[in-house]
Amino acid sequence: MRRLPESSRLSYRLITPQDEALMILTSCNANVMRYITGKPRTIEEAKAELIINLKHDDGEHGLFVAEAKETGEFVGFFLVRPFENPEETETGYRLLEKHWGKGYATEGATAMLRYMFEVLNRPFAVAVVAEANIASRRVLEKTGFRHEKTGQFYDAELMYYKVTRSQFFNNQNNQL
């Protein structure tokens, strides 16, 4: 059986077709999508996004639903997927607004990195973020990511961050 990411306050499971309402809830929210696409998706676009993410589940990569262990409440999504070339594996996330500022982004990003390094045995991980998204940049930096360059990714000007296995495990913030 496939090992899933783990963390103290959140549980993770792979997205399923039954998660359409959760995809719509996040993808159609202007504030959640502000730094991802710049605008909310339509319901039809959110449904198409779900199908695309279901196809990314190849036994190693996928979109993970994050739920609060204490309440079972949906918190958001965390991502592990191939990036631009076979050596690169990307992580990312989007959380419902009511869960911002609670440390869930850092906790989930840390869990995804542990999964990438310990289970998938990746030598490094990458992430891209809008320069204006200061909160997400801070999350990446807290988990050991370092800004390497700025360029065109996903049809937008984004900051490219990278963290190696040793940088991650030597980072005192990741000692959970």
Plain-language structure description:
The chain is 32% helix and 29% strand. The protein has 176 residues and is α+β, with helices and mostly antiparallel strands. The strands form two sheets. It has a four-stranded antiparallel beta sheet, with helices on both faces. Strands 5-7-6 form a three-stranded antiparallel beta sheet. The longest helix has 16 residues. The two termini are 24 Å apart. The mean pLDDT is 93.
Briefly, what is this?
With 176 residues, the protein is an alpha+beta fold.
Q: Count the strands?
A: 7
Q: What is the CATH superfamily label? A: Gcn5-related N-acetyltransferase (GNAT)
Assembly of the depicted chains? single chain
Rounded to the nearest angstrom, the distance between the terminal CA atoms is 24 Å
CATH topology title: Aminopeptidase
CATH domain class: Alpha Beta
Q: How much strand content do the residues show?
A: 25-35%
- The secondary-structure element order is EHHHEEEHEHEEH
Helical amount: 25-40%
Q: Indicate the mean pLDDT.
A: 93
Low-confidence stretches: none
- Shape annotation: globular
Major sheet summary line: 4 strands, antiparallel
Main structural class: alpha+beta
What Rg is obtained from the alpha carbons, in whole angstroms? 15 Å
| Order of strands, widest sheet | 1-2-3-4
Number of H/I helices: 6
Number of domains: 1
